[in-house]
Structures are given as structure tokens and as C-alpha cells.
Amino acid sequence: MKKSIVFLMLFSITMTMIFQSCVEDKCKNKSTYTKYVPIYSTGDEFRHDPQYLAARPMENIGKLYFYNQYVFINEIDEGIHIINNQDPSNPITEAFIAIKGNKDLAVKNNILYADSYADLLAINISNLSYPELMDREKDVFTNVYHYHEGSGYVIGYERTVETRTIDCYHSYWGHLMFEDGVELFATADAGLGNTVSASQVSSGIAGSMARFGLYQDYLYCLDEGYIDVFDIQDVTNPEFSNTEYIGWNIETIFPYGENLFIGAADGMYILDNSNPTMPSYMAKFEHARACDPVYVKGDYAFVTLRDGTECESFTNQLDVVDIRNLASPFLVKTYPMQNPHGLSVTFNDKLYICEGTNGFKILDASNVNDIVEIGAYRDIDAFDIIALGENHVMVIGQDGFYQFDTSSPEDVQVLSFISTSN
Description:
This protein is 7% helix and 50% strand. By secondary structure, it is mostly beta strands.
């Protein structure tokens, strides 16, 4: 009896090995991967005082901010351009503040708050000729910039494409894979996309793509899936107060009244901010997965959804959401768009929407059930927009910084343009 059992076990093992050998011989799959290799930086490499430099050409520009007749434009991971905008028809680029790892900014009482990879900086800009670092809060954005002992902070990834042959039975086949800490994304072919109103005296105006927001004596910063709260009663010395998990896919922030509106890839979160140190979840308006900035005015939130590989969506639309009952927001109407990005609404319900390579649109939003286009400017690849009054808008485009006179929506006039060098 025992011999029979042993024989059966040996037979089973042998047949399994033969079967697997056949599978290995017959089931091979050549797949192409996008490989992301971490780029590291030590704190010593970016923790130096911001440098005030002469004006330099804009290249890879990102966030847009307006404060006391000055325009601040982020040069992604490099710093901030400072533009004197007292005459919008003749803006003058005055200087550049070099800040390694900078992507976002906000200004209150002449203190510029800016991220520098994992750190938050407070810079006194009361004299723009001599900006002074007042405080550096270290390691406050480590949800984004992970620290690895011996290597430093992960500040980005180098992307390469590789082709490998993998056995079909392998547990890695067709799935997200990790190899020595490096992520590999499998695909069936060689193609793969990326995965990856305020008072001018006290604080400024951010674009709708902002991840920094100000409310009273508090600064809110989106940090991966978290919102980090900083007490800035002493504006020169921000103090970390609290962090709250919101959702892994949050992207933009829009403070409005005693609420924070968070744009996420799968919806709009509404937070109760009556206790500014502890914003709490109130409700969520869900939509199809898409890139999602939010602008709020009165009883309505305007949400643009766009397609793109990093958003994993094929949706291009404007959603108008009724927020009169903040605990139960609901969709009023959806309007088809081409590829909407940033947006802004004026006091008299003139709605501006960036449409990427299709420029920007001007819409009459006085009746949310019948929003109509009244003008457009097509000759720009538009990313984000700030409306200053009814007829003056600032736009960040792929090729530079624009200002427009929109007093005649059917005939938009360019006031000025500062081009990028690339």
C-alpha cells in the first residue's frame, strides 16, 4: 500500500514536471515594458537657500499665480519666474528665484510658500530684489518624495523601454512587476503612455491646477493622497498642524467659503473646513476616471474632465454640479468639450475653459442649464487660466505666458506674450 502511494506521488511529480516543460517550450511571450528607474537626490543636493537670479528664458513652465501686480510662473523643478505686470500690455520679467524641486506655490502677506521636493519653504518677498528664506520645513512631503536610506529621496524616474521574453505561466506575465525596486509595466505591444476671490493685499490668486491653497491662517498642500495642513498665523514660520487622508488620486484644490473642493481623478471631494486644522469629509461627486480641475462659484461647481494616458480616460466634458446642499451634490448638466484643462469664472458668469491644443473658450454660464459659447481663441495650446476681472485673462500655454483682452469675446485681442525658449 505504501509503495503504491509512493509510486503515485512520483508519477504525479514527474507528469507535472513534464507538463511544465511542455508549457515552457510552447508558451513564451515577447512583451514590451516601460521601465521606471528611480532618480535619487540627497538632501544636501537641494537643501540650499533659494537664489535670486537675473531673469532667464522660460522653458518647462507649470503653475501660474498672481499677487499684487506680479505674476509668478513655476519652472518645473527649477524655480519661479517673477514678472512685473503693472502694465499687462508690457509685462517685464524681472528675476528668477532658483528653487530645486519646485512645482507649487502660494503667497500671503509677502511670504512666498513653495515646495522644494520634500520640503516647504517660506520666503520673504517684500523686497523682490532680496528675497529671504525665513523657514524650511523639512520632510513634510514624503508621501510624494520617498526617502531611501543610503540613496536619498526619490525625485523622479528615468523611463526606458525594454523588450523581454517571459514564460506565460510566470506570475509576472501581463501584470505590474517589481524588479530590484524598479517598476515594470507590461503591454501587449511596444506602445505605452505615461502612468504616471482672494484679496490682492493679503493673498494671491492661483490657477485651477493648484495643489496649494490658502484659507485664513492656514496653508493646505496636497501630498499624494493626503492633504497637509500648515498653521501660518506667523506667516514667516509655517508649522505643520495635521494631515488627513483624502484619496490616492487627488489632484487640485479650490478653497471656497468654509469648504475645500478637491479635484480627483474619479470625482470631486467636498471637505468641511469650519475647523481649519482638521478638514473633514462631507461628500463626493463621482464621475468617470479623468483628469479633474474644479472651480466653484456660488451654488455651482464647474468640473472639467479630460482624456489622456495618465488619466486613463476617454472623457472630455464639463460637468456642472449643484452644491447648494453640500452633503449631497448632484449633476445639473454635462457639456461636451474637446480636451478641457484649467478654467476660471468671473463675477458676471463668464466662464473660461482651456482646451489644450484647441486654445480656450469663452462661455456664458449665467444659465447653468444652457451654457453657450460666446467666443474663443484657438491659436494657443492652453493649460491653465486666471481671469482678472471680466475682460482680462492670463493663460499658461505650451509656448509661453499670454494675456488677453476679452471685452469682445468674438474678437479676442492679445495684450502681451512672453515665449518659452524651447
